[in-house]
Structure formats: C-alpha cells, structure tokens
Design brief:
Helix 11 packs across helix 12. The strands form 3 sheets. Strands 4-5-8-9 form a 4-stranded parallel β-sheet, with helices on one face. Strands 1-2-3 form a 3-stranded parallel β-sheet. Strands 6-7 form a two-stranded antiparallel ribbon. It is of the alpha/beta class. The chain is built from 21 helices and 9 strands.
Length: about 475
C-alpha cells in the first residue's frame, strides 16, 4: 500500500549510510534550484487562462494515461474512468475506483508522482484507501478552489524558470503572447512539433499540408512546402521557441535530389503514398528538418521508437494518447548517418536523441554523442523516467559520453502538478549516482558538486540553447 507522508529527505538515496551522507549533501545543493523544463506537454492555455483546476478525478485520472493504462490492465474499462466521449461515471466514482486500486501503483513511477502531488502539493496527510476516498476527494477539491492553487500561483511556487510547451505548426501562439505580457516569474515558450505535416501516413496529411500552404501563401510544390515550414519555424522563433521536436517511430534520414523529392511530395499530397513511399519521404524530411535547424538555430530533438495506438479497438473508440502506446527496439547509427554526414559537424547544430530502448544508450547514443559535437543524449523519457531507469541510464552513458554530452532532465508531462516531483526524482537519482562515484574514488567531492550543479543548470542550458 502506498503511504502518504511528507517528503523523506533521504528518499531514493543510497541505503549505505556513508554513501547516503554524500548523496544527501549533493542533493541539498540542488534541491531548490529553479526548474528548467525544455520539453513538456503542458498546454499554454492552462497558464494563460489561469482557471482553477477541475475536479480531482479529471486532474489525476481522466487525463493521465500513465494512470488509466494500469487500471485498464486490471480490467477497469476506460469508459468507467471517464476517458474519451463515452463517460459512464461521475468524478467522485472515478476517484473511488482509483482508491480501490491504489495498491496497483506501488513501486511504479506513476505511484511516486501521484504520492508526491498529493502530499507535497495538495497537502493530503492520510493514505488513500477505499474508506478515505471521499475525504481525500473533498480535501483536494477544497484546495483546488483556492487562489494559491491556480496554475500561475503554482508555476511560481514550483520555481519554474523555463517551461516549453509542444505546439502545432499552425498554432497562432496567442496564449504564449498573453503569457509573455503577463509578467510571470518564468518563461513559457512554444516548441515546433511538425510530425503530422511530415508524415504522409498521418491521418489528414494532405489536408494539413494544404492548410499549411494556404496559411503561408506558398506554392503547392515541394519547394513551396519547405518554404512554408521555414516560415512557420521563423514565427515560432519570433515567439521565443528554442527547439523543434520530432516524434518518429524510426530515426531514419535520407537525402534525395530535387526531382525525386518533388515526385514523392506529389504522391504524398494525393493521399496515395504506400508504406515505402511514406517511409522515404519521412526520412528525407527528417534530414530537411536538420537543415532548417542549422539555418534557424532551433535545437532538433528526436523522440524515437514508440508504437503508437497499439490497440486498434481502443484507438477507434477512445482516440490517441489513451494508454496503449508501447516501446519498440530502436537503432540510430545507420538511420541517422545521412543526416550526421551532412550536418553532424555543423558548429551551431544541436541534436538531442531520446529513446525508450535502453539497449541503445551504451551501444549507440553514448558513442554518437562521444564523437559528434552536435549530438546530445536525451534524458530517460516516458517509460524510462523512473528512479531505477535513471540510474541505469547514467551507468550506461557516463563511461563513454560523460555527463556533459547529455541533455539534462526533461519531464515530458501533461500533468502540471507532477513537474516538481519529476525533477526532484532526477536530482535525487543523479545525486545518488554521483555519491557512488565519490565513494568508489572515481570523483572528488568538489568535482561531484560541480557536476550536480551543472546537471540542473548549465547542461540543459547548453543542450537547449536556453
């Protein structure tokens, strides 16, 4: 059973007393440092409108696919959890369902985030059980109604210095402009996310490209299409963006001549692209995105290796992002070679590579980042953003690429209230890893202290050009 308690100062630190003492000192150095969040999925609208959060079920269950997927695995229907348009339960009943199944989250990253949000953010001081569910629900509802628990107040309380959202290329960024004028203590900036405009197999691809061309006044040619994307990237840069994000199944790049690129574009725009055509077009466009990043300075991030919407029946009934995305084996070395041959040595090009396939950390990503000045190893992401996974990441990457060829932590979350818990976890895990190196005589204390500082500040600032 997960307990609810105020934060243990030694949580996630090593069990060995002497190593724990070193880790504790390192963690204390960075525990309260500002949060840099260069990749998240928190909508700018949330902060721009600054409305009170919804009910506890909406906040913690309905919109969190980390939570709904595990409940679904236990046999709880997604409709019972309020997912999609077929909602058959009231918020309080959804919350009771979570309470009845609270034990499922013991030992999981989701359980840790939820526990931290409840106890540290919302001041819940009793364990969530079926018997206490209504009391906890009422306590949370009371807190959410207070001004100090609105999004902007929590943004300041969390100490967020930079929060990057993830945005459609045709977004007018109205909410970002409003936030830039609002005088928040930190920055909220957009991220250019063009996946649906680059993949001929994406639903509605021809219509999206037509809207893109119309919005920018570009010709319906491949050259016009590239110009339209460049135009929108410039718009994002003007509104504070520092990165462009690409979610791909496989990190594949290819360079085509102008004639072949035009031919593939015509086929893609017709909606008749077969699997091979779509794959080659995506590969060429990943290389084109690298070219654009060299030219406009946007950091290029690649999140690779996820089979989206694995359950067709679930996707058809409930839509995307409802818990049935699954990691795939992923390889980078051969697929990205055309891109790196062309742009890997460019001095102002930053390419951050993320994976959910742990086997690539030591075999591919660390060696790539250990040579190419443009390449950084992205932090553990999605299924890997838990304490033990972070420790494995550091062990796999550090001996080849060190600490300074990594990205710094990213929270990659839609769950705004979990941001401080996620960053705190990374700081604790990194402090534990550094402490072990100190105790083994592989680092001096002063070196470990400098690295601990840099992992939460200068390392992400450099990787993401903050």
């Amino acid at each position: 059973m997960l307990g609810l308690q105020r934060r243990d100062p030694d949580r996630l630190l090593p069990a060995d007393p002497e190593t724990r003492a070193v880790a504790r000192d390192l963690y204390r150095r960075v525990a309260d440092r500002p949060i840099l969040s260069p990749h998240s999925h928190v909508p700018a609208e949330l902060l721009a409108q600054d409305e009170p959060f919804g009910n506890p079920a909406e906040l913690f269950v309905v919109r969190d696919h980390y939570v709904t997927r595990l409940l679904h695995a236990e046999g709880v229907g997604l409709d019972v959890l309020g997912v999609g348009s077929e909602r058959s339960a009231e918020p309080r009943e959804i919350w009771r369902t979570l309470a009845r199944h609270w034990h499922l989250f013991a030992g999981t990253a989701s359980g840790y985030w939820l526990q931290e949000e409840l106890s540290e953010v919302l001041e819940v001081d009793e364990q969530l059980t079926e018997e206490s569910a209504d009391r906890v629900y009422d306590h949370i509802a009371d807190r959410l109604a207070r001004p100090e628990f609105r999004p902007r107040a929590l943004f300041e309380r969390f100490g967020i210095e930079v929060l990057a959202t993830t945005d459609d290329p045709l977004d007018d960024l109205t909410h970002h402009r409003a936030l830039a004028e609002a005088g928040l203590p930190g920055r909220v900036v957009p991220t250019f996310r063009p996946d649906a405009y680059l993949d001929p197999s994406a639903p509605g691809f021809p219509e999206r490209v037509e809207r893109l061309l119309a919005a920018t006044g570009s010709a319906a040619t491949f050259a016009g299409y590239l110009a339209a994307l460049e135009d929108r990237r410039a718009y994002f840069v003007d509104h504070g963006a520092f990165s462009a994000d690409h979610g791909v199944v496989e990190p594949l790049s290819a360079e085509l001549d102008a004639v072949e690129a035009e031919r593939l574009f015509r086929v893609a725009l017709s909606g008749d692209a077969d699997t091979d055509t779509a794959r080659l077009f995506r590969a060429h466009m990943l290389l084109q995105m690298a070219r654009m990043s060299v030219e406009d300075g946007l950091v290029m991030t690649v999140h690779a290796g996820v089979f989206r919407n694995h359950s067709t029946a679930t996707f058809q009934r409930y839509g995307a992002d409802t818990g049935h995305d699954v990691p795939l084996p992923t390889t980078f070395v051969e697929g990205l070679r055309p891109l790196l041959e062309r742009y890997g040595l460019e001095p102002d090009f930053n390419l951050v590579l993320f994976t959910v396939d742990e086997t690539t950390f030591s075999r591919e990503l660390a060696p790539l980042a250990g040579f190419y000045p443009s390449v950084y190893v992205g932090a553990p992401w999605w299924f890997l953003d838990a304490p033990d996974s972070i420790a494995r990441f550091r062990s796999a990457v550090t001996e080849t690429a060190g600490f300074y060829r990594t990205s710094g932590f990213i929270d990659d979350t839609r769950a705004f209230l979990s941001i401080p818990a996620r960053h705190d976890t990374a700081r604790r895990a990194d402090s534990a890893f550094l402490a072990r190196l100190v105790r083994e005589g592989r680092l001096t204390v002063s070196t470990a202290e400098q690295i601990a500082d840099d992992l939460v500040d200068s390392i992400p600032r450099r990787a993401f050009k903050l």
